[in-house]
Task: inverse folding
């Protein structure tokens, strides 16, 4: 093809071009491509060097060689450019197709969960706050005077028996009486009436202690106490409040009933039951007697209640001629087992994480 030029130089040029083309096939990335470019058409590249041979050619051969040289150089440049585009394109494709694993390794330690009793207490607070009650607190170590005397529980009452009460070392600052672990939440009634003027609407929740320990009793359990003191308050208000509470807590319209009973701090006194929300029904909506919770009675015993005894009002400087009031108290643990379907009360206090983990936050 190249006529009139020195065979040696022309052949060398053709040979370099072929070498370049072979080497280009092996190039896989931009760095290697750049090296190839330097190797052939860089300042000291093998093709560039051939240009220096031009001076050795006869003048009439120079023009043809110059043209041949330029053609080869352009071909190499074009091939390099084409390969460069291909390499960059492939890199772009690979980048777009990359799938990043964004999974975050969970290095946090387990945060635990809310105990069913705490959940139940929170739910009780929510419901009673909505009904207009303040949530108040009382101490676990209580004056015997507040735990018994002012609640009209005389010294010889069985509730004071050593069997029931944990006495605490030390002397109470009230009337030289003993200190006890409170056996119920009712002393919070006393503390509240001594501490504020009626009208009073409070609930108090917390741990109480009795010296009982068997399959159905724990020496440590939980109660809620309600107290309402105002002018003209009657047992009808008590029943209406219990009805409202039970329905709000269990989320359906449930009846409550009061049965006559005795507690020294109320007169009249009652035990109150709620309609069982767990009874299975037939297709006609009639309750079946096979309920395992209420054992077919359709009622669940909740606790005690009644009109606050005038002696209790007097002991707290509330005039029984001016004010009346009612109170109630019941166990929270049973509410928790009912609400969360816990089959055995003792599970609540065992501290077994396999049980507690079932109540996530
Ligand atoms: N304090 C009682 C107990 O632990 C429960 C109780 C009954 C509380 C009647 C009351 C009430 O306020 O009026 O057994």
Result:
């Amino acid at each position: 093809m190249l006529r009139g030029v020195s065979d040696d130089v022309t052949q060398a040029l053709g040979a370099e071009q072929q070498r370049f083309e072979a080497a280009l096939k092996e190039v896989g990335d931009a760095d290697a491509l750049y090296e190839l470019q330097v190797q052939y058409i860089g300042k000291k590249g093998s093709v560039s060097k051939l240009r220096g041979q031009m001076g050795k050619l006869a003048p009439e051969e120079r023009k043809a060689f110059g043209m041949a040289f330029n053609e080869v150089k352009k071909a190499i440049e074009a091939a390099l450019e084409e390969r460069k585009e291909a390499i960059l394109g492939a890199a772009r494709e690979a980048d777009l197709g990359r799938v990043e694993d964004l999974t975050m390794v969970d290095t946090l330690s387990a945060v635990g969960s809310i105990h069913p009793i705490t959940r139940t207490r929170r739910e009780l607070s929510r419901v009673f706050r909505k009904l207009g009650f303040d949530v108040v607190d009382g101490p676990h170590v209580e004056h015997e005077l507040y735990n018994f005397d002012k609640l009209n529980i005389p010294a010889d009452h069985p509730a004071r028996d050593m069997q029931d009460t944990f006495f605490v070392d030390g002397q109470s600052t009230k009337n030289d009486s003993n200190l006890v672990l409170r056996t119920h939440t009712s002393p919070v009634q006393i503390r509240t009436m001594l501490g504020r003027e009626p009208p009073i609407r409070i609930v108090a929740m917390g741990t109480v202690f009795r010296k009982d320990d068997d399959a159905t009793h724990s020496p440590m359990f939980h109660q809620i106490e309600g107290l309402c003191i105002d002018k003209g308050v009657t047992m009808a208000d008590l029943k209406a409040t219990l009805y409202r509470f039970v329905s709000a807590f269990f989320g359906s319209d449930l009846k409550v009933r009061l049965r006559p009973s005795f507690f020294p701090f109320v007169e009249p006194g009652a035990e109150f039951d709620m309609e069982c929300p767990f009874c299975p029904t037939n297709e006609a909506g009639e309750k079946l007697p096979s309920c395992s919770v209420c054992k077919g009675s359709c009622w669940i015993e909740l606790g005690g209640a009644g009109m606050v005894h005038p002696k209790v009002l007097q002991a707290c400087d509330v005039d029984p001629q001016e004010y009346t009031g009612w109170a109630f108290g019941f166990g929270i643990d049973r509410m928790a087992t009912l609400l969360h379907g816990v089959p055995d009360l003792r599970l609540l206090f065992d501290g077994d994480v396999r049980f507690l983990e079932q109540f996530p936050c």
In short: The longest strand covers residues 220-230. The radius of gyration is 46 Å.
